[in-house]
Structure formats: C-alpha cells, structure tokens
Write a structure and sequence with these properties.
Elements (H helix, E strand, L loop, with lengths): L3 H12 L12 E5 L5 E6 L9 H7 L12 E6 L12 H8 L3 E6 L11 H7 L3 E4 L4 H6 L2 H4 L2
Helix pairs in contact: 3-4
Bound molecules: zinc ion.
Pfam families: dCMP_cyt_deam_1
Protein name: Diaminohydroxyphosphoribosylaminopyrimidine deaminase/5-amino-6-(5-phosphoribosylamino)uracil reductase
EC number: 1.1.1.193, 3.5.4.26
Amino acid sequence: MTDDLGFLTRAVELSRLCPPSETAFSVGAVIVGADGEVLSEGYSRELDPQNHAEEAALAKLPADDPRLRTATVYSSLEPCGERASRPVPCARLIIAAGIPRVVVAWREPDLFVAACQGTALLEAAGIEVVELPELAEAARAVNAHLLAP
Ligand SMILES: [Zn+2]
C-alpha cells in the first residue's frame, strides 16, 4: 500500500531546501518504488542553478533502472510541459524514464508559462496523474514571494 500523502508531504518539505529564486518555482520531488522504497529525492536548483526538482531526482538514478517502470513520482508542483531553461521539460523526462504514475500537490499557475501542459502530456502518454489538493496550500506557500502582487 502506498502512502501518497506521506510521500507528497516529503516532497513539499524538500521544496523548502531550494536555493531562493525570483524567477523560478521552488519544488520538491520524491521517486518511490512499487514496494514503497524511496529511490531518489530532489529539489529545484539542487545540482545546478537550472535544475528542476524532478530532473534532479531522476539524475541520481541510472536511466535504465528497472524500478522506474513501476515507480511513482511525487512532486509538490505539476511537472512542467515546457520550459525556458532547457529543451526537455520534466513531463517528457518522466515519460522517457517509463514512470507510470505521478502525484502532485499544486497545479502550475500561469506565471512563467501560460497554461501548463505538463499534466496533459503525462496523461496523453498513459501516465496516471493524481492530485492531492489538500497539500496545494503548503506547496504554494513555499513560493508565496513569486505570487505576491
Ligand atoms: Zn520541470
């Protein structure tokens, strides 16, 4: 049995570790295997200044790690469907890794890209996307400085 709320809470905790930025969201991500083992964790700007959380977490595992094929990605923010900083958005990285399930707390607001297509891309690839809105406020609070008028 998976503890979606617990792992997503951990992702939100990781988002608080991000080096501050005025131009990018702070996000945390946890990759959990089918047996409930944490395979990897990451957060925005962890490994380099342009890293996204899902990207940082995926970078710590071999691309052909067979556990990815049954894993779940927990991300405090919906994976990006397009991005300014790199050619491959996180939704495509998750699809390429063969991960079948994504759990998110917060839908990307129209701040840096209009109408985030991350969820649509994932679902079109057959990936199950689960939203736990009870954690959206916690994920958003980490980014409150970006959202203030
Ligand atoms: Zn991303």
